[in-house]
Design a protein that fits this description.
alpha/beta; Rossmann fold; about 500 residues
């Protein structure tokens, strides 16, 4: 009975604990049944057999509490095996509240109802039976030095902003450090500092301030955006295409905090695959410039990946997902040199990269893709420069740096990205027919193995600059176009916000 009384006491104070239960056994074991409660501080009640069995169970329970995960374990005894389950009753969640006035008490009540164990730091005598610890000292700094602050801890200072307190907390592991302060006292500090703390909801009463602050604490704990869920759902951006230029656009928008869905063919034919999210169509997932993209099979799966900071990629050539996703922005980055079906009526803002579109007619904005002084220009009326059909000149090489199929068949590369090659050297096969390098240089682009090609099909790209080229990074052109798209999108959302 003592075990369950202890569990009730810990639950009342929101303190984490685990219960170990024997579920099965084989051979000769110390106990065939039993339970043991393990506290966060290592204190334990009950028994599952004593000796090595219990020591191993305690060690596993500590790990389970640390990670907040249930687990099944088996412990070998001299002549048998004991099977046990470890149930973690609650996750490690701690808050330290500095100052226990009207606002501090309101925040305490709300955090307590959310399952946080709470320490109070004060300079005068107080009474709060639900608190795990109450630290009292002549100054808040002295009292705070006594508290335990780890990566599971939120520190909420409801007294005035104090440089000494801030300095003490700056080196801590706390996931949230907030000060109740005026806007004029806003400070730049570590990313886990919130000064002044709380969301702008017009809070005035202590209970309203508590809602504002605790919402921000939960946002920081769960690593979420803090934006309105309805706006998060509505403010989706679809980028058509997942090639190297489209990928740079997706990454820039993603890093700016937008929810982006990339759509493309079932089997994209990009050659700069190492810097294209198109690879996710074949491999299931890929990563470019530190951003992960993962293939999804249904549009609704996008929400889970957005929550995890991952870019969802969907095979949807005809944009059948349009009515379900209802994007605010569509970016056509297919770079087909013609309009394959993107129109103004599809979204409040439509953007297209390159020739084939007329801004103000087909789409709202066209981005210039031709290299030169006008590269990445934002065109709100008219068209981009027409396609010349000639690749950009690099060290005197243009069309000859592009490798094209000389016959029909299945493509199979023998060289890969970054490999140095000499003119005429075999870099791939189409069926049994060898494909030679067109110039000296390094492989910068290579078609995915197994695709069927026809004569004239673009299958590889060779850069004559050799090993000096950062072939593993998006190009300067890609980054310039991405910046232009972000400028248009940001200005659109800013104007919408003012309405």
């Amino acid at each position: 009975m003592r075990l369950f009384e202890k569990a009730a006491e810990l639950e009342k104070r929101n303190l984490p604990f685990a219960i170990i239960t024997i579920t099965d056994h084989e051979g000769v074991v110390p106990r065939k049944s039993g339970r043991m409660l393990v506290c966060q501080n290592g204190e334990h009640f009950g028994s599952v057999g004593g000796g090595d069995v219990e020591r191993m169970a305690l060690k596993e329970a500590e790990k389970a509490l640390e990670h907040g995960e249930n687990r099944n374990i088996k412990v070998q005894t001299g002549l048998g095996v004991v099977s046990m389950v470890i149930d973690v009753a609650s996750a490690k969640r701690r808050a330290v509240i500095v100052g226990y006035g009207h606002v501090g008490r309101a925040i305490f009540d709300l955090l307590y109802s959310c399952g946080f164990s709470i320490d109070i730091v004060e300079v005068g005598e107080i009474k709060e039976e639900r608190a795990e610890h109450i630290y009292l000292a002549k100054t808040a700094v002295d009292a705070l030095r006594l508290a335990t602050i780890d990566r599971f801890t939120a520190v909420i200072v409801t007294t005035r902003y104090d440089e000494n307190l801030a300095s003490l907390l700056e080196s801590s592991e706390a996931f949230y450090i907030g000060f109740l302060a005026s806007r004029s006292r806003a400070v730049r500090a570590k990313k886990n500092f919130f000064v002044p703390m709380g969301f702008d909801i017009g809070a005035e009463k202590p209970e309203e301030i508590a809602i504002s602050v605790v919402s921000e604490v939960l946002m920081a704990e769960k690593k979420r955006s803090g934006r309105s869920i309805s706006n998060e759902s509505r403010n989706a951006i679809i980028v058509r295409g997942t090639g190297d230029l489209a990928t740079a656009v997706i990454i820039r928008l993603h890093n700016a905090g937008y929810n982006v869905l990339g759509v493309d063919l079932e089997k994209p034919t990009q050659i700069r695959r190492n810097v294209s999210f198109a690879e996710a169509m074949y491999e299931g997932k890929t990563e470019v410039s530190g951003v992960e993209a993962r293939r999804i099979t249904e549009p609704k799966q996008r929400f889970t990946l957005w929550d995890e900071g991952i870019v969802p990629i969907l095979a949807d050539e005809k944009l059948d997902c349009l009515n379900e996703v209802k994007p605010v922005v569509i970016v056509d980055a297919i770079i087909a040199k013609k309009n394959l079906g993107t129109y103004k009526s599809m979204a409040p803002l439509t953007i297209a990269l390159g020739p084939g579109f007329c801004a103000g007619k087909d789409v709202d904005v066209v981005i210039e893709t031709s290299r030169g002084h006008e590269l990445a220009s934002i065109i709100r009326e008219g068209e981009a420069k027409p396609n010349t059909g000639i690749p950009g000149i690099i060290e005197g090489h243009g069309e000859d740096r592009v490798v094209r199929a000389h016959t029909s068949g299945i493509w199979k590369g023998v060289k890969t990205f970054g490999d140095e090659v000499k003119k005429g050297e075999t870099i791939a096969y189409i069926d049994e027919s060898p494909v030679g390098a067109t110039i000296d240089g390094i492989i910068r682009g290579m078609l995915h193995d197994g695709l069927e090609v026809t004569p004239g099909f673009k299958v590889a790209d060779i850069d004559p600059r050799g090993l000096s080229v950062a072939w593993w990074k998006p190009s300067d052109k890609a980054r310039a176009l991405a910046g232009a798209v972000l400028e248009v999108v940001d200005s659109f959302f800013f104007i919408e916000h003012l309405k």
